[in-house]
Amino acid sequence: MNESKKKSVLACLNKMQCNPKSQVELIWVPPGIGKTKTVSVLLFALLRVKYRTFSCAPTNIAITKVAARVLKLVIEANKTCSVADDQFCSVGDILLFGSNESLIVDSETEEIFLDYRVKRLRECFGPLGWRHRFTPMITFLEDCVSQYRIFWENEAIKRRTHGSEHENRRKESGSETDSSLLVCSECSSYKLYKVKMKPLSVLVIDEAAQLKECESTIPLQLPGLAHSILIGDEWQLQATVQSNVSNEAGFGRSLFPRLTTLGHSKHPLDIQYRMHPLISCLLNACFYNNNILDAADVKHKSYERHYLPWPMFGPFSFINVCGREEEDGSWCSHKNMVEVAVLERLVQTLFKGLKKEAQHWHNISLCFSGCCNSEETW
Question: Is 114 helix (H, G, I), strand (E, B) or coil?
Fold first, then answer.
């Protein structure tokens, strides 16, 4: 992590530890900064210092990415951390839940998914009895019995060595079972109101600028929350409402830009690792007051790619296509077949160039409805 990310994470942790009053922190994350890594490191740090944390985001893709990254950090840390360590984190402390229909869980995150754990427990304690499920039971618990015994043996040694001093410190820090991390979409957070559990203390909202204020109030009203951290960027995808009346009334506004407008301080992340310098220069000048810096990797000459042979094409291009817009009863808007023809030519040329670099992943986003007419030529 670069310095701006470290400062932002440490600043949030220090304020929570030094100031018991409820407060809201904003972390400003422009495009290409590495938001997922920052959020996952923050959640992992909160997990290690025993804060019960709830993290949510407006999309299921965002929460699964963050959950997978936190899980990976926990597994890597446990390779060098013993169970008796005060900062030991169990995989069981992380819980991902949500709708089965919309939440896509793969092999990397299924062990922290609520429905998967319920399924495994049902298999272990089913009608046949858990003796018939010995092997999956061992896999599920990951030899926790021996680890539990080792933990209490180490605790006994510590008590004999340190006496009452260790006991007082243990009471102050709290039991390891008190810490947990819950992850879901903000809409699914209403389910927590019906669950009897120890109060949560920290709320982390990822992509906070995309949430309408009314949506943010769902997790913000969870009992026990003392600190909230909003992570986002008001210049990227914003909260929207379909009704013009509601939009004019301000119901489409997000809590993140509202706090920014009121002068609430933000922790800025300022080094981008994704865009070509010429692209970031354009965004810098138009939206970010030249506050974003380019990482060394994107400045390197090897970062440049040239797939379109014509001289007008560089890192970005604006193409003004002439042509007549046509109406079609099957379309929601007008279409321009000249634009479709230009798009087809560009995509075909790009595809040929990308095939030469099969080892790289690329993404082509089509942002207008007329592109569907060109499916037959792809």
Answer: helix
- CA–CA distance from 148 to each of 43, 92, 105, 117, 127 (Å)? 25, 14, 29, 20, 28
SS3 184: strand
Looking at domain 3-142+179-269, what is its CATH homologous superfamily? Answer: P-loop containing nucleotide triphosphate hydrolases (3.40.50.300)
Alpha-carbon distance of 41 to 34, in angstroms, equals 11
- Whose tokens are 């039991």? That residue is 175
Distance CA 349, CA 214 (A): 45
Distance CA(33)–CA(3), nearest Å, equals 12
| Domains of the chain, residue spans | 3-142+179-269, 307-377
- Of 255, 196, 178, 189, nearest to 222 (Cα)? 189
pLDDT, tens digit, 9 for 90 and up, residues 316-336: 788 888 777 776 655 556 677
Give the global pTM: 0.74
Tokens of 292: 């974003």
- Which residues does 169 contact at the CB level (< 8 Å), separation at least 6? none
Structure tokens at 81: 């951390």
